[in-house]
Specification:
The complex is a heterodimer of chains A (255) and B (573).
Chain A (H helix, E strand, L loop, with lengths): L1 E10 L2 E11 L4 E5 L6 H8 L7 E6 L2 E2 L4 H5 L2 E4 L11 H11 L4 H14 L15 H13 L5 E5 L7 H16 L3 E5 L3 H7 L2 E6 L2 E6 L1 H11 L4 H15 L10
Parallel strand pairs in A: 3-8, 3-9, 6-7, 7-8
Antiparallel strand pairs in A: 1-2, 1-4, 4-5, 9-10
Helix pairs in contact in A: 3-4, 3-5, 4-5
Chain B lengths: L12 H26 L1 H31 L5 H30 L1 H6 L6 H34 L4 H32 L4 H24 L9 H10 L9 H13 L6 H42 L8 H11 L8 H15 L1 H21 L8 H25 L1 H4 L5 H6 L4 H26 L8 H17 L8 H6 L1 H32 L8 H8 L2 H32 L3
The chains are: A alpha/beta (255), B mainly alpha (573).
Chain lengths: 255, 573
């Protein structure tokens, strides 16, 4: 469903992602973890076609995101780290714009929009201009927009930012439900607990390289083997160890 | 290899274009509705002042064309060609900057590039906005000029009907070229885009300045005399190249204005042919730009991300240290805020490259004043015309650079809001920056241009104060582009008020002075109206004029700043 093949990307001479090989099958929720500047956001921006890899290729359901971005985008839904909306459109108008952009038939779009409004409880404000929304409202609307066309692949960059506990619960339930129906989710997060709760597999990226790839159970086994007190401690040890001996040009910002 | 969700299908080009038009319409309609609901007074004020501005320009241009016709100078073709070719260069540059900001740094572009939209459709959508922002000024300035010309020449209704199509099709050409240059520079020279932009700005300014210098410097002839005009016109022949869109526009409009009597249909047909040439070229360029965007937009967007500088060059670090005084003493809040604004301005190439272009242009203009020769009672008129020209340039300058200062704080406003400084101090810091940025270059230019250019430094100060005040009165904290803020609602008001201030100040001082000079030469005698003019043309009349100018200027500075302070204290971002 998603294939990273020997993907590298640098900013000037600074490597942000190096030799990433990763395949995520249909119906899997994959969580990418890592400290600030690890290369998570760069990986996601390459996946959604905003950045081209310096080397290697990325495919979404077989479509190369650089060579054929439109075909790849038809399968993608994307929730960015900063929710972007048109301030002078209402939430409903924005959802219609997205549905129309994906070429949905009118009746299917209308039904999907109503379903998303209900799922994310947008009804109270969906007909107001987006300029009046709080961060949480924006984030919920962006989720609804990313899902309105029922994508096969959902890409999430720090998805819980700005959400209240109830909204977080809604998102988590929705993700598990969709993944159960075959959707692939690629999620970047700083929250270890979130990855532990939701992810089928997780990767830990440090200085642009994938240092751990496996299931939560694999990570737990590593915890047991390493003598660490818990996942968090192992995560910190893993990243600290690599940070001390690793890349001579560590990234300074999370890009 | 696989099909998308059965509910999705890729849009064809026409459907995609309709969708983007709908998006633009909905946003514009919501903006207009919001303004009508919450800012009717402001809207009415801007409309009224724009109408006055337009009418004043129309009257001035009409008098100028009537004067030129009465002197039997065949000047219109050259004047139009020079004006439109100069404007063409400026639109190339300004649209290039606007397109760059919209295509590569806006959040909208980042959103649209993650959707299944064609890159050329995204380009066209964003370019249209840049075209609008770059083109409205041309329409505002060009329409009174062309309408006045039509009236003086007794043009028929067809001329006025053709004005808008001519102007729109013309402006689309340099605007598209500017956007294409932005695409090419980012795709091919992402690392040197700043240098390329700044270099282009200074080169255009220097080129225009050289043209003005070489055209106006006419040794041996007194300025504003018929031989002087003839020499100037001869040197402006260079602007009449037949391959330039400005020539097609000028020729088409001149034909339309000359459509009288039995030969009118043929003349109008000739005009329509020029319009067709403009439209065809605009459309051809738009196709070329779309093809370029298809190949280069995504690539350029990605390459640009790889070139974001993460370290300041050593020279910049030294400048920062110097300005900060090495942090050895606790600085006043106003100075600290000022320092921040200087750094932000210095690092925003789209801002300082335009400033550089302005200063170079003004420099050439002032230097060219040395080459003028004046005699008799025209000399003071030229002095006041200089004052008007510099004042109008200054209005544009303060609108473009000073008015957006408060709005540019945008979403970062909470940082200022939480600082232990009074809001008045924030506004004063903006004023100090603006005043320094306008008074210092203006005084320098005045000194450079000898005593010929009589721009009082306080006019610059008043402009800066009014622009800061208006900027604080009607900030737009959601917009991150300075150019769009300046071209918006409040910026238009600042521009119009600034220009009106120049007109009032110049008229209040120039009219009595000129009348006094004419009276002293015995050229003002008679009863009735002339009697009133005689009384005005005395030295007490001159003193009264100066008093009125100073009073109006003081009000123009104080009222916007007071409004700005009041609104800024209550501002809830």
């Amino acid at each position: 469903m998603i294939e990273f093949s020997a993907v590298s990307r640098s900013y000037g001479r600074k490597p942000a992602v190096a030799d990433l090989d990763l395949t995520i099958p249909a119906g899997e929720l994959f969580a990418l973890l890592g400290p600030n500047g690890a290369g998570k956001t760069t990986t996601i921006r390459m996946l959604v076609g905003l950045l081209a890899p310096s080397r290697g290729s990325i495919r979404v359901r077989g479509h190369d995101v650089v060579a054929d971005p439109r075909a790849a985008h038809l399968h993608l839904g994307y929730v960015p780290d900063e929710p972007t909306l048109y301030e002078k459109l209402t939430g409903r108008e924005f959802l219609w714009f997205i549905a129309d952009m994906f070429g949905m038939p009118r009746s299917a779009a209308a039904a999907a929009i109503e379903a998303q409004i209900a799922t994310f409880e947008l009804g109270a404000f969906v007909d107001d201009l987006a300029e009046s929304y709080s961060l949480g409202m924006r984030q919920r609307l962006v989720f609804a927009a990313a899902l309105v066309h029922d994508p096969a692949v959902l890409v999430l960059d720090e998805p819980m930012v700005g959400l209240d506990p109830r909204s977080m619960r809604i998102v988590k339930d929705m993700l598990r439900q969709r993944v159960g129906r075959g959707m692939t989710v690629f999620m970047s997060t700083h929250l270890l607990a979130l990855a532990e709760e939701l992810a089928d597999r997780l990767g830990i990226m440090v200085h642009g390289r994938l240092r751990f790839l496996g299931t939560v159970a694999d990570l737990r086994r590593q915890v047991a083997g390493s003598g660490a007190a818990g996942l968090e401690q192992l995560y910190l040890e893993l990243t600290d160890q690599v940070g001390a001996a690793g890349d001579p040009h560590p990234a300074e910002t999370d890009r | 290899m696989s099909d998308p969700s059965p509910r999705c299908r890729p849009l064809d080009e026409a459907a995609e274009a309709r969708l983007f038009w709908r998006l633009r319409f909905l946003s514009a309609w919501a903006t207009l509705r919001g303004m009508l609901r919450t800012a009717r007074l402001r809207l009415a004020l801007v409309a009224l002042l724009s109408a006055i501005f337009w009418a004043t320009l129309f009257a001035l241009f009409r008098e100028a064309f009537a004067f030129l016709d009465s002197a039997q100078l065949v000047v219109a073709p050259l004047l139009f060609n020079s004006f439109f070719s100069t404007l063409m260069l400026m639109v190339v540059f300004s649209t290039g900057i606007l397109a760059y900001a919209g295509l590569y740094t806006s959040r909208e572009a980042r959103l649209l590039l993650t959707l299944p939209a064609r890159p050329e459709a995204v380009f066209t959508h964003i370019f249209r906005e840049a075209l609008w922002f770059a083109g409205w000024g041309f329409i505002l300035l060009g329409s009174p000029l062309l309408a006045a010309f039509g009236q003086v020449r007794g043009a028929g209704p067809a001329y006025y009907l053709l004005l808008l199509p001519f102007m729109v099709s013309f402006i689309a050409i340099p605007a598209t070229i500017g956007a294409m240059l932005a695409l090419l520079i980012v795709a091919w020279l992402p690392r040197y885009r700043l240098q390329a932009t700044a270099g282009a700005a200074v080169a255009i300014a220097a080129g225009l300045g050289w043209l003005a210098w070489s055209a106006l410097a006419t040794p041996g002839a007194d300025s504003l005399t018929v031989p002087w005009f003839e020499q100037v016109l001869a040197r402006l022949e260079v602007s009449q190249q037949r391959l330039l869109p400005s020539w097609w526009l000028s020729s088409g409009l001149l034909e339309a204005a000359a459509a009288h009597g039995p030969g009118a249909p043929a003349t109008l047909a000739e005009s329509a042919r020029f319009l067709a040439v403009l439209v065809a070229n605009a459309l051809a360029l738009s196709v070329a730009a779309a093809a370029l965007a298809r190949r280069l937009y995504r690539t350029g967007y990605s390459r640009l991300s790889a070139e974001i500088p993460t370290k300041r060059p050593p020279r910049a670090r030294r400048l920062d240290t110097l300005l900060a005084g090495r942090g050895e003493r606790a600085a006043a809040p106003v100075w600290l805020l000022l320092l921040k604004d200087i750094r932000l301005f210095r690092r925003d190439v789209t801002q300082w490259s335009q400033l550089a272009a302005f200063v170079v242009l003004l420099g050439f203009y002032c230097l060219s004043m040395r080459a003028f020769h004046y005699s008799g009672s025209y000399a003071p008129v030229v002095g006041f015309l200089n004052l008007s020209a510099i004042g109008l340039v200054l209005s544009t300058f303060t609108t473009k650079f000073v008015f957006p200062l408060v709005s540019l704080e945008g979403r970062r406003f909470w940082i200022l809001g939480l600082l232990p400084v009074r809001r008045d101090e924030i506004l004063w810091s903006k004023f100090v920056l603006a005043a320094a940025g306008t008074v210092v270059p203006c005084v320098a230019l005045v000194l450079t241009s000898d005593a010929m250019l009589r721009l009082p430094a306080w006019v610059a100060g008043v402009h800066a104060e009014a622009a800061v005040g208006l900027g604080a009165w009607m900030p737009n904290l959601r917009e991150s582009s300075a150019a769009k803020i300046a071209a918006g609602f409040g910026g238009t008001l600042a521009l119009v008020l600034g220009a009106l201030l120049v007109v009032v100040v110049v008229l209040a001082t120039a009219v009595p002075t000129q009348l006094a000079i004419l009276a002293s030469h015995g050229q003002l005698a008679g009863g009735g109206w002339v009697g009133i003019l005689q009384r005005l043309g005395t030295w007490p009349g001159v003193a009264a004029g100066v008093t009125v100018a100073v009073a109006v200027s003081a009000a123009a500075a104080a009222i916007p700043m007071a409004l700005g302070f009041d609104a800024f204290r209550r501002l809830e971002p």
